Amino acid sequence: MAEPPAPNRLRPPEGLWRRRVASFGHAFRGVWAALRSEVHLRFHAFATVVVVGLGFYYGISRLEWALVAISVACVWSAELMNTAIEALTDLASPEYHVLAGKAKDVAAAAVLLAALGALVVGGLVFIPRLLGS
Ligand SMILES: Nc1ncnc2c1ncn2[C@@H]1O[C@H](COP(=O)(O)OP(=O)(O)OP(=O)(O)O)[C@@H](O)[C@H]1O
């Protein structure tokens, strides 16, 4: 008799809520996988902890928290997208190709831009407080 088909781990379980919960699981697995492989992301995690700690220490305003949260989310999102693009590029073009290089360079540029924006926000919010003014 034929073996029953192996369960397809890629197919989400039946039911809307179970599918949503499964999607969250995939997303957290992605964050975890990226954290394990990317030194830059671990640095962002460290910076996030420092910035949140400083935010509580100095009692920054709601608007400042909003700016800090958007900045942190932008940097994390850009770095995660960069990691995904790097992985896909390595899969599609393990050999040298000018378009593979362009894809990686442009993805890295997105991270740089997000990080510069976060640096400006962090500077405006925290430098006056760190200088005591
Ligand atoms: N297959 C390729 N073809 C052409 N150029 C590539 C290729 N792979 C990488 N490069 C070039 O080398 C640079 C560094 O690529 P690499 O994969 O080492 O990423 P990285 O910036 O070191 O990322 P990370 O440090 O986050 O792992 C790319 O930005 C690109 O310019």
UniProtKB/TrEMBL annotation:
Keywords on this record?
A: ATP-binding, Cell membrane, Kinase, Lipid biosynthesis, Lipid metabolism, Membrane, Nucleotide-binding, Phospholipid biosynthesis, Phospholipid metabolism, Transferase, Transmembrane, Transmembrane helix
Pfam families in UniProt: DAGK_prokar
What's an example of a GO molecular-function annotation for this chain?
Answer: kinase activity
* Membrane topology reported for the UniProt record: Multi-pass membrane protein
User: Does this UniProt record's set of keywords contain DNA-binding?
Assistant: no
Q: Where in the cell is it found?
A: Cell membrane
Q: Which InterPro entries match?
A: DAGK, DAGK_sf, UDPK
UniProt entry tagged with the keyword Kinase: yes
Q: Which residues cross the membrane?
A: 39-59, 106-127
Q: What Gene3D superfamilies does the record point to?
A: 1.10.287.3610
Q: Which family does it belong to?
A: Belongs to the bacterial diacylglycerol kinase family.
Name of this protein: Diacylglycerol kinase family protein
Per the UniProt record, the source organism is Hymenobacter monticola
